[in-house]
Amino acid sequence: MATKVLMPQLGESVTEGTISKWLVSVGDTVNKYDPLAEVSTDKVNAEVPSTVAGRVTEIVVAEGETVAIGTLILYIEESGSADSNSSTANTQQKETAPQPQTESKPAAVEQVSSSPIAKKGEDGSKPRYSPAVMLLSQQHSIDLTRVSGTGMGGRVTRKDVQAIIDAGGQQPAATPLSDSAVLEPVSAPTPVSRPASFDMASAPGDDIIPVTSVRKTIASRMVQSKHDAPHAWTMVEVDVTNLVNFRNQAKDDFKRKEGLNLTFLPFFIKAVVESLKEFPMINSTWAGDKIIVKKDINISIAVATEDALYVPVIKNADQKSILGIAKSVDDLAARSRAGKLTMDDMSGGTFTVNNTGSFGSVLSMPIINSPQAAILSVEAIVKRPVIIDDMIAVRSMVNLCLSLDHRVLDGLICGRFLQSVKQRLESIGPDTKLY
Amino acid sequence: MAVISYIDAITMAMREEMRRDSNVFVLGEDVGVRGGVFRATVGLIEEFGEERVIDTPLAESAIVGVGIGAAAYGMRPIAEIQFADFIMPAVNQIVSEAAKMRYRSNNDWTCPITIRAPFGGGVHGALYHSQSVEAMFTNIPGLKVVAPSTPYDAKGLLKAAIRDEDPVLFFEHKRCYRLIKGEVPDHDYVVPIGKADVKREGSDITVISYGLALHFCLQAAEKLAQEGISAHVLDLRTLYPLDKEAIAQAASKTGKVLIVHEDNKEGGVGGEVAAIIAEQCLFDLDAPIKRLCGPDVPAMPYSPPMEKFFMLNPDKVYEAMKELAHY
């Protein structure tokens, strides 16, 4: 009796996964909890452990293929169950505990496979369409399963279809779109928040790059954030000459003691965290009819790789010293680039610090990392002539840019927050504690 | 243009035709001295004399039979059946003689007779003064059956019937006689037989009717319009042969069709209308073709509550139209 192994749920908002690599092949004997495959989801790479001990009899999903959660990916012939009598009941009992779902959760399979099928009629029967509706939908290529009916019991009427035709026809439903709609249930009912043009023509010679699941997620998150949160923007310039001097003094010693580079980012994060403590409103989220002010201060940091952007989280950053923050940044950045982030690494952020200065930018307008209320970008530190006490001095200057969700925050509090960050950074000096 | 009643439009049509053509004459029970029991022929005997306005014995077979003979001789008789209920003794003359005259004589003879018959209930007339008998005559090739609902159509269609070379059965809803008033031109005009008429433009549902019921439909449509439901109302006017083109067009316009008539449902004109739509408009239909008709009981009851139950009214039509609109 072959046991079915299904694509496991690898995170709350994850709806599909790509088999990036099979670690077993047909005929292999596996023990329980042995890794079967590497799966990459939206942002996490994970291994699928075996739920049973036995022999791999069939691999259903090919490498590189993306399938929905709950999809059958391979069969394992359980050892010691050659006689078919000892069947499913046994199997299921053994399988209840671990994450990857087997047949004991048929509901998930059912849900996924039935979703593209037409919505049911009022009494649970299949919907029935009048001849007029059928003809019009065929003539104008309208997918009736996506039309909401205004007739009795939600029946799709001729007028419903005609209205769509008069409005210029139905928006094409590209497969990736429907996936992201499931992924982001909030954005699904508002067509505005969907990426718009899927019918862009490509000219001969153009490269067509298939959209990866990470790219897809980035796209839908960005669109959603821009659509939902009214972005306002403000900037302060900070004199970080003292910081630069202090860091230059401390970095070699630090490297020797701690084995890692002392960069500027931990100082900025530290200053931001302390200011968030002072202005907890900034560390909040819009929740429709209320604003939730977060108790924990978890700083999301943006880590760019060649083709994607990861936003891992430094948990409880307010409880960390500059060293602690530096270690966290180093660890998260390394694991981001290696593709080894876990779902836990990615979740729970309450405010984002984005180090745009690392690629030389002096001004940026970041998109808020929804559902957070604000994002701060640290620009490049550049030497500039600055007037101090009516004298021109050469100082190391940096711009701090803040995008804010204007539903939650106003200019006044953000201005005060930035002033606070600025003050903390400018007062860094020989007395600053690294530990 | 004067606003006159339905019955005055009938009288006007006959008077004008009798003045225009000396071959036109009227015969029937009490049509002369009495001026008709509904007063449709009032004043005609004074103007045209008893040779052209003839009181007959109580024998419908003779009224129609004499008319057919006169028509064969070149006259243009208007035979009045006092109540449509009484037409049965004349069915043989109408169906087997008048309707077949042209065909069996290989076009040598025609039968230009008009047979007027007041039909329908709602006048407390009970069993023998309330029947709708039109369905009995709407499968007789050679016979034309007309049932106007407005004074304008009544005058124009009656003149067309009188001038028609073939027999025309002209049904007048007796409740319309003095209830329905409308603008009717004094001058000569004809409404063509065989043409239906859109009495109200609409886009949500199509209602097809004739006679008194048409007015119920228009009233219901008015009420529904206030609720945002737009009804398209087609008046058949001619029940045989039906205006198939107009029926198909009206049905296709909205894809939701309600047919309304006072006559019994089973075997009524509505069944034929529904069949035409089913044959021609399948891919325009958005709902089952519905009928709202009189119940399949033998006759109009005498008891007022029961007559009220039998008869259609604007509320009943309104409910049926609304249900279809929401389908």
Estimate the strand proportion of chain A. Answer: 15-25%
Tally the beta strands of chain A. 19
Give the radius of gyration of chain A. Answer: 27 Å
The dominant shape of chain B is: globular
Unreliable residue runs of chain A: 82-122, 174-197
Average pLDDT rating of chain A = 81
Largest sheet of chain A: 7 strands, mixed
Q: What name does the CATH topology of the largest domain in chain B carry?
A: Rossmann fold
Structural class by sheet pairing and helices of chain B:
alpha/beta
The first-level CATH class name of the largest domain in chain A: Alpha Beta
Name the CATH superfamily classification of the largest domain in chain A.
Chloramphenicol acetyltransferase-like domain
Strand element count of chain B: 14
**Average pLDDT across residues of chain B?**
96
Please list the strands of the largest sheet of chain B in the order they lie side by side: 3-2-4-5-7-6-12
Protein name (chain A): Dihydrolipoamide acetyltransferase component of pyruvate dehydrogenase complex
Family (chain A): Belongs to the 2-oxoacid dehydrogenase family.
Cofactor (chain A): (R)-lipoate
Enzyme class (chain A): transferase
Question: How would you describe this structure to a colleague?
Answer:
The complex is a heterodimer of chains A (435) and B (327). Chain A folds into 4 domains: 2-114, OB fold (Dihydrolipoamide Acetyltransferase, E2P) (Beta Barrel), CATH 2.40.50.100; 119-173, E3-binding domain (Dihydrolipoamide Transferase), CATH 4.10.320.10; 179-190 and 213-226, no CATH class; 229-426, Chloramphenicol Acetyltransferase, CATH 3.30.559. Chain A is built from 11 helices and 19 strands. Chain A has helices at residues 87-95, 106-114, 131-139, 158-166, 175-183, 213-228, 241-258, 265-278, 322-338, 343-346, 411-426, and strands at 2-6, 16-22, 29-30, 35-40, 45-49, 54-59, 66-68, 72-78, 231-239, 284-286, 291-293, 299-301, 303-304, 309-310, 313-314, 351-354, 374-378, 382-388, 391-405. In chain A, strands 9, 12, 15, 16, 17, 18 and 19 form a 7-stranded mixed sheet that branches. A 4-stranded antiparallel sheet of chain A has the order 1-8-6-3, with no helix packed on it. Chain A is globular, with a radius of gyration of 27 Å. Chain A starts with a strand and ends in a 9-residue tail after the last helix. Chain B is α/β, with parallel strands linked by helices. Chain B folds into 2 domains: 2-184, 3-Layer(aba) Sandwich (Rossmann fold); 197-326, Rossmann fold (3-Layer(aba) Sandwich), CATH 3.40.50. In chain B, 37% of the residues lie in helices and 20% in strands. In chain B, α2 links the parallel β2 and β3 (53-55). The A-B interface holds A 130-135, 151-152, 155, 157-159 and B 204, 254-256, 282-287, 326-327.
